[in-house]
């Protein structure tokens, strides 16, 4: 099987493409990369999520890395991706491996790789890793896990203390414990389970978790992705519990979604707008903003108000992380609900983002719906939607050609001013809104997204995008 890396690494269907042999081949490629880059002597951190066999896949990866003479720091349990990422610089390791398919369907598993900073590896280096993956498992080095534990080449560690200490450096959690919040957390059967009770317990605030056990088939949702309809069951608990907010972490807890005090979902573009408002207005911080082409223009408007620069990148943290480090960004984020913050690893952190939302509520004394009203008072209302459609591989080039050649004069009655091709094809409209058509970097899916200031035009924009792509 030819292993190809997407946005963060490699993902495939368990037992079909994602087998122990293919995992070992992939790990050997990363081990060879670390040696080639002079990083092998620094060691590697390996973690995993709660998917089927993820713990055993992580142990198999540890066996390969140790056999290649690379010291392995293996997590003792399923661990949030941001905690795995933070463990890389904490242990001064040369890189990291995380066995997770994040928000993918339950049939999938994944192999994420991280650089020395705990951030995403740039596209050129991902290609190099790909090229170093051996064609046969016969060319993979491997020792037994027990032998590695005995001789010390593999050590098992608890990532909780160091990551918790880092969170406490980034935000004063003590006042949140005593704020008297009633917090609902939808763990989506994933790695975020137990974290908010651990962080906020012992004070006046209360935390109720749902979907907080290990269940790799992810009941009540098609996948552990914090967008509708996957969030609907969790949000149904808001009103019965009289919760002040619902925090929704995806399967590996690097992404986050929110529900307001009424049980209404706050879409991920509005969340990023709120994060920008929090840092610039509520905290009074200043610094560059990094955003993907697929996320909200509310950030551009906020940046103009508060006189800070904005940098737009392609979709994925393999683009965001390097740019954040280059410009010392205040925040970085993308449309999928992943947000990163200055002073931390250049990586999505859904747990820290949840704490920041609580801090914004505490500092302003306002509920989420009121905060959203404040944001809209600054930048005007913005509306968003996205449709994902599966496609046949044989049709991809025809779709690319069709969309690439398209240049409509108007979309849903709004004049088209520009076409941006940083990642996919984005049509920029006269109201500052946009329509984007692009292929997913992790799945055989084509995405049609839009943002507009006209609520009554959202569906018409999406429908025209589907027509441009030939999907209707």
Tell me the layout of helices and strands:
Layout: E1 9-13, H1 20-36, E2 44-48, H2 54-67, E3 72-75, H3 81-90, E4 95-99, E5 108-114, H4 123-132, H5 145-151, E6 154-157, H6 160-170, H7 174-177, E7 182-186, H8 195-200, E8 206-210, H9 232-235, H10 238-241, E9 245-249, E10 256-259, E11 265-266, H11 268-282, E12 289-292, H12 298-306, E13 310-313, H13 317-327, E14 331-333, E15 339-341, H14 350-364, H15 368-379, E16 383-390, H16 396-405, E17 410-411, E18 414-420, E19 425-429, E20 434-439, E21 445-452, H17 458-468
Shape: globular
First and last CA, distance:
33 Å
User: If strands are numbered along the chain, what order do they take across the biggest sheet?
Assistant: 1-5-4-2-3-6
Question: Could you tell me the radius of gyration in angstroms?
Answer: 22 Å
Number of helices: 17
Q: Tell me the structural class.
A: alpha/beta
Structural domains: how many: 4
What would you say the CATH architecture of the largest domain is?
A: 3-Layer(aba) Sandwich
Under CATH at level 1, the class of the largest domain stands as Alpha Beta
CATH topology of the largest domain: Alpha-D-Glucose-1,6-Bisphosphate, Chain A, domain 3
CATH homologous superfamily label of the largest domain: Alpha-D-Glucose-1,6-Bisphosphate, subunit A, domain 3
Could you name the ranges where pLDDT drops below 50 across 5 or more consecutive residues? none
Q: How many beta-strand elements?
A: 21
Give the amount of beta strand, in percent.
15-25%
